[in-house]
Specification:
- By secondary structure, this protein is mainly beta.
- The protein has 1 helix and 7 strands.
- It has one helix at about 5-10, and strands spanning about 15-20, 25, 30, 35-40, 55, 70-75, 75-80.
- It is elongated.
């Protein structure tokens, strides 16, 4: 696996990320924004009615409990690279 340099990110990401912001490129990486939906895995004893997505408002934060994982939805649309 290879990594793209910041220069490659500048030239290629504008066609892959919408909306694209060149100012979000730093140290050969691109900073994505958290969207308004988060899905956190539930503990085995969590009742089914409490196992659901979390809807965030602007500036909200979310904590992922130790031992759990989360499916985070970005606010950007990312196209598949063929």
């Amino acid at each position: 696996m290879s990594f793209w340099s910041s220069q490659t990110l500048h030239s290629r990401l504008s066609s892959l990320i919408e909306p694209f912001d060149v100012n979000k490129i730093e140290s050969a990486s691109y900073q994505l924004c958290l969207g308004d939906e988060v899905y956190i895995s539930a503990l085995p004893d969590t009742p089914l009615e409490k196992r659901k997505k979390i809807t965030l408002s602007e500036k909200d934060t979310v904590s992922i409990p130790p031992g759990q994982f989360a499916f985070l939805i970005t606010s950007e649309k990312i196209k598949h690279l063929n």
